[in-house]
């Protein structure tokens, strides 16, 4: 969950033993987990404010474990253990105290966090009699409650005044943070930006990892270089690509250097979660991210007879919803009409399959699925330069450029000139949106109308899945 806001998971998977012990895993509803731990850790005869404070602590503790993927990022198949040496007590099948169960029903969506941070706080605690610690003393809360302290005052007594209680109504199934596909050069996504953000922070502790200057969600050679350095340091295959094992190793080291699963956490700030691209696109959304998705969908729709064709407008309208639903039906996904992570993954994979088999005699080529920008050398850059030079014959505002295959300052200036003329953000980068605009303008002048790849591909595919 490190790339998003915390939420209450519907279930918790508990390992009934120490992390490496051979023991059973059980999956229980979140609220039942909290009731069980509270009934195992607390006495029902304690003052109500002491019980409330401790329930907040129990909820926040398990949410921190789930949010940071503390165990799953290390290859375990559970969220938390029932070992009090590592986590908190859980006795599978035990009876629940009535008053504790009623309090949990009221309090389970509330957790503790440091003011100004995002993650549920790692609320370290001990019983205060047979063991002591730098966090909360469970028995100590009893005396404080008897003195008239409120639950928040009790928590502030142990954790400091800079904490707050947060209630969330966001209750849903927890899904792995790994996007389900290997991230590599050419990927443009919130997931790529998550990797860039985390590697830049990790590099403070491991200077051999080069800083990524542009934390913009564009997985370029600089990002791949930082990934390779990380992989070399942590004994992973130095591919420069982020597969599942690299994703979770980065997540685990990031959590460790920021101490997110410790009482003295550095804290995860809102700006750490800000992404250039939304993780979910849905009806009513507008902008470049929608236009980019529509381009991919339009190409796939031109090759798959069962996917409804779409016009690239930059607005997630009724036609877009219908086309997305037809794509989801074709690829066996829930037909929501919303472009979520799984839909995007399958759309991305379908596009790559088409890209690899595109006709060589087409008037214009498909977007190469690599963001072209200053410093890049690629055959796709040479094609881009040829398109721009041809267009310069029709508009003197677009300068001609040599087709060297190297994206230098002159090519960037030509791209920016085109972007200004066509109402695009003049950043000089060529992603799917700018490529579609440039190749489309080229096709109309060089080859005639309706010659874009998603208008006349020459053949269609009938899906069998």
Task: Provide the fold topology.
Layout: E1 8-9, E2 11-15, E3 25-29, H1 30-41, H2 48-67, E4 80-81, H3 98-107, E5 110-114, E6 125-126, E7 136-137, H4 138-146, H5 151-159, E8 163-167, E9 171-172, H6 190-205, H7 221-233, H8 244-257, H9 270-273, H10 288-303, H11 318-330, H12 341-356, H13 379-392, H14 409-421, H15 432-446
Parallel strand pairs: 1-9, 2-4, 6-7
Antiparallel strand pairs: 2-3, 5-8
Helix pairs in contact: 1-3, 2-3, 2-4, 2-5, 6-8, 10-12, 13-15
Quick recap:
With 465 residues, the protein is mainly α. The chain is 42% helix and 6% strand.
Notes on the protein architecture:
With 465 residues, this protein is mainly alpha-helical. Helices cover 42% and strands 6% of the residues. The protein has 15 helices and 9 strands. It has helices spanning 30-41, 48-67, 98-107, 138-146, 151-159, 190-205, 221-233, 244-257, 270-273, 288-303, 318-330, 341-356, 379-392, 409-421, 432-446; strands spanning 8-9, 11-15, 25-29, 80-81, 110-114, 125-126, 136-137, 163-167, 171-172. It has a 3-stranded mixed sheet with strand order 3-2-4. The longest helix is centred in the N-terminal third of the chain and has 20 residues, at 48-67. It is elongated and about 85 Å long. The model has no long low-confidence stretch (mean pLDDT 92).
List keywords for this structure.
single chain, three-stranded mixed sheet, mainly alpha, 15 helices, 42% helix, 465 residues
Mean pLDDT: 92
User: What is the approximate shape?
Assistant: elongated
- Write down how many β-strands occur, each being a DSSP E stretch of 2 or more residues: 9
Query: What topology, given as strand order, has the largest sheet?
Result: 3-2-4
The description of the largest β-sheet is:
3 strands, mixed
Low-confidence spans: pLDDT under 50, at least 5 residues? none
Number of helices: 15
Helical content band: 40-55%
